[in-house]
Design brief:
The protein has 11 helices and 7 strands. It is an alpha/beta fold and about 325 residues long. The chain has a 7-stranded parallel beta sheet with strand order 3-2-1-4-5-6-7, with helices on both faces. α2 links the parallel β2 and β3. The chain is globular. The chain starts with 8 loop residues before the first strand and ends with a helix.
């Protein structure tokens, strides 16, 4: 199997589970040395009810052909981040790729509450874990890349659309890291550094928590489509990892600086597949489902909820203004 990232060094910040674990594993699959960071270690997990730890992720990276190195780091503690990159410099002498995947908002995001109803302290704490950590980590990773005049910084977000993501703090977190990728790309270009910064989103991700929610495993995940039709077009965490591995292997990646990309679109561009050989495409699935709803005479409550969520997602996108108008008119006819 080709290993295009052989002799490359990556840090995946937030590699304990979910997309972060999948990204680390895919980079290992491509031959990279991957520093897997997070706060959960064997015997002392940081998230209540979750058993995953960075040592397990590092083992999986090595099993897939790379070298996984677990490092416990609280990315809100700047001195721990500084120590991380000092270690990478001492042990490897280089850094080729940083992936910022720290989130920490599961269980704390107050879905269904308007901005005048949310707990401000909780919202601010999510901003710290999901945005401040990315800024701190990028600030201390970038000098290693700038010194070598090469490297890639990837911000993991949710959605490529410019509109609203249904909840105030969730929206602020996910749009902020997109803007962070863009802002960093501007300053890197102004400095004349051949270092690329961009953002990427997965689709419907089959994380460990999502599999548990539906009562399935990665081996039986298709059974969950009976509960949620969208799950049939879900993707494993390895899919976004393979997208990032493809970007990191692309000598022309600098042309993508400042942009936001999706796992599904990159799969078609680069030709990689998910772990089961599929190329799930979340946008195609969502567009088809919405088109069917708009042709329906008796939409279900779930159909109407989907349209209600989708409507503000299409704000500020002139290419989809007609679709937005159709959804708005349909909801108006339904009394919504």
């Amino acid at each position: 199997m080709p290993r295009p990232l052989q002799n490359k060094v990556a840090v995946v910040a937030g590699a304990t589970r979910g997309a972060g674990r999948g990204i680390a594993c895919a980079l290992g699959e491509a031959g990279a040395t991957v520093y897997c960071t997070g706060r959960s270690v064997r015997g002392a997990t940081a998230t209540t009810g979750r058993p995953e730890c960075i040592e397990d992720t590092a083992d999986l990276v090595t099993q897939r052909g790379g070298l996984g190195i677990p490092v416990r780091v609280d990315h809100l503690q700047e001195e721990e981040v500084v120590a991380l990159f000092q270690r990478v410099q001492a042990e490897q002498g280089r850094l080729d790729l940083l992936v910022n995947d720290i989130w920490g908002g599961d269980g704390r995001t107050e879905w269904g509450k308007r901005f005048w109803e949310v707990d401000v302290a909780t919202g601010f704490s999510i901003l710290q874990t999901a945005v401040h950590t990315h800024i701190i980590t990028s600030r201390h990773a970038a000098p290693m890349m700038i010194e070598r005049d090469a490297g890639l910084i990837v911000e993991v977000t949710d959605g490529v659309f410019p509109g609203y993501r249904s909840q105030l703090f969730y929206d602020l977190c996910k749009t902020s890291v997109i803007r962070l990728a863009y802002a960093m790309s501007v300053e890197l270009a102004q400095a004349g550094a051949a270092v690329t910064s961009l953002a990427i989103t997965p689709g419907f991700l089959r994380s460990e928590a999502m599999l548990e929610h539906f009562g399935v495993t990665e081996a039986t995940w298709r059974d969950a489509a009976a509960q949620d039709a969208g799950f049939a077009e879900s993707e494993s965490p390895l899919y976004i990892g393979r997208a990032i591995a493809a970007l990191a292997s692309d000598p022309g990646v600098q042309a993508r600086a400042g942009g936001v990309y999706s796992s599904w679109a990159l799969a078609r561009e680069y030709g990689f597949t998910d772990v089961d050989g599929r190329q799930p495409h979340w946008d195609d699935h969502l567009d088809a489902r919405i088109a069917a709803i708009l042709q329906s005479d008796a939409p279900s409550p779930d159909d109407l909820m989907l349209l209600t969520v989708r409507l503000p997602q299409l704000d500020f996108d002139p290419e989809r203004a007609d679709e937005r108008a159709r959804i708005a008119a349909f909801l108006d006819r339904q009394g919504g």
